[in-house]
Structure formats: structure tokens, C-alpha cells
Amino acid sequence: MATDVHGEVATQAAAVRVQGLTRAFDGRRVIDDLELTLRPGEFTALLGRSGCGKSTLLRILAGLDREIEGAVHVPERRAVAFQAPRLMPWKRVWRNVLLGLPGNPDRATAERALAEVGLENHSGAWPKTLSGGEAQRASLARALVREPDLLLLDEPFGALDALTRIKAQQLVGELWQRRGCAVLLVTHDVEEALLLADRALVMRDGVIAYETPVDLPRPRAIDDPDFTALRAELLSQLGVDAPARTT
Ligand SMILES: Nc1ncnc2c1ncn2[C@@H]1O[C@H](COP(=O)(O)OP(=O)(O)OP(=O)(O)O)[C@@H](O)[C@H]1O
After folding, report:
1. For residue 55, how far is its CA from the centre of ligand 1 (angstroms)?
2. Is residue 11 part of a domain?
3. pLDDT in tens, 89-110
4. Coiled-coil region(s) at which residues (predicted)?
5. CATH at 39
6. Does any ligand 1 atom lie closer than 6 A to the CB of residue 23?
């Protein structure tokens, strides 16, 4: 079952179908007649220069912004994780995981999701005692506990140090393969997109201006010539000349 952002039921084979989407702020069209289809179980990366409207699109898909024109069909079960983990400091980790979840879920439900992200020993901890990477994993657990058919990730690794970021990327890749949900990952990092995604999109001038399948075997290697070629193509689409790699 799927609903549009206004709560109407829609029948569809796609996980997400967006048609003629427009969102303006103060008369300026940040999203301008945008079309987008995401297939069930597909991992899609969304790239684009700062301010091009990626987060705006993600918030619309999450149902957090409804001041739109056009049609947006998304699965009922969807969850979002942002760059900042957004944990409530006065609630223990397991209560944060269950925050806003309908019904009366018990601690064991939260702990199953926490175990999936390797935080089984932090269920009773206060958020302030978590490292940045742990807090981000708790935020992922809060998304996973909703059993989403669509997982929306807005630069979830952006604030992490390089090593923690690599581990978090691997974790998301594993979770996606295990869960089989559709993922839309907003990222500034072309390599991150190519390591994780089935398809990469570039947003420009309010639309998806470019897209490419990422037909590379997994796990992916950044020194693979096909990887390097796709990286150069995506960087050029983003208006950046690809620097030569020295490694
Ligand atoms: N609530 C709002 N009110 C007014 N303008 C907004 C609002 N939200 C977003 N914008 C504007 O819309 C444009 C797109 O913002 P958005 O956050 O979607 O970009 P982005 O591609 O996610 O950027 P970044 O990569 O820097 O996070 C920006 O110019 C921003 O200033």
C-alpha cells in the first residue's frame, strides 16, 4: 500500500513516483516540474551543488513539507535520518529509538534495531554519552525500527571523521542488502555515491538533470577504471574537473 503526501492511497509498482513536482520559496522555484521514479529495493544517490534543492526534495518525500504542486507517491512506511542525529537528550537511547512510533512498542523492539547497528550495549545510555558515530547509528536504528520500505538519508555521514564515515557507509550498505528497502541517499561525496548506489542522480536547476546506473560489481573498488570513469563523469556533471588520483 502506498499513499501520496496528502494521505491518499495510490497503486504503484515503483517505490517512489514524483510527477511535476514544484516547490517555491518566496516565489523562487527551488524544485521546478521535477520527475523522479525509484524502484523498490533500489539504492539511489542524489548529488548536486549546495543549495540546489536536495534536502528540500528529501523533506517532501519524507512528508515533512507539503506546500507543493505536483504528485508525490511514496510508501506509507518510510523513515528519514539526517546529518545531525537529532536525539532527545532527556530520553535514553532506546526511548529515542521508539520516539513517535505508533502503538506501544517495548524496549525489546528498540533493542533489536540497536543490535542491527551494533549498539546493543548502549540501549540504556543517555545520548550525551555516545560518540558522534554512535549517535548517528542510534539515529539509523530509529529509522530501521519503523521497518521502512523507503529509507531517506540526508548526508548521514557528513559530520563524521573519515574512519567512522567509512564504517558507517559499510553499515548502511549491509543494512540495505539485508532489509531490501529502497534507499535515497543525499550526499556531496561522489565516491560515497559510487560505493553504495545502484543509480546516481544529479540535481540541477530544480530537476534531475543527469542520471547514471552504477553497474559496478560489489564490493566496489575506487581504483577500478570503471569506477574512476564514472567518478569523472559525475564530477563533470557537478561542474568540477576531476583531479588526477595519486593513489
Ligand atoms: N524554509 C525555507 N525557506 C526559504 N528558503 C528555503 C527554505 N528551505 C530551503 N530554502 C532554499 O532552497 C534552496 C535549496 O535548499 P536545500 O536545503 O534543499 O539545498 P541542498 O541542495 O540540500 O543544499 P546543501 O547541499 O547545501 O545541503 C536554498 O536556496 C535554500 O536557501
Report:
1. 7
2. no
3. 999 999 999 998 988 899 999 9
4. none
5. 3.40.50.300
6. no
Task: Specify whether 129 is located in the same domain as 165.
Answer: no
Report the predicted TM-score, pTM, of the whole model to 2 decimal places: 0.91
pLDDT range class, residue 76, cuts 50, 70, 90: very high
For the ranges 3-7, 109-113, 181-185, 212-216, the lowest mean pLDDT is seen at 3-7
How many domains is the chain partitioned into structurally? Answer: 2
Give residue for cell 560489481: 217
ipTM above 0.95, yes or no: yes
- Nearest residue (by CA) to ligand 1, atom 7, is 25
Q: How far is ligand 1, taken at its centre, from the CA of residue 30, in Å?
A: 8
The residue range of the domain holding 230 is 16-77+149-238
Question: Does residue 199 lie in a domain region?
Answer: yes
Helices (H), the chain: 54-62, 93-98, 107-116, 132-144, 162-179, 190-196, 225-237
Q: Are residues 49 and 161 in the same domain?
A: yes
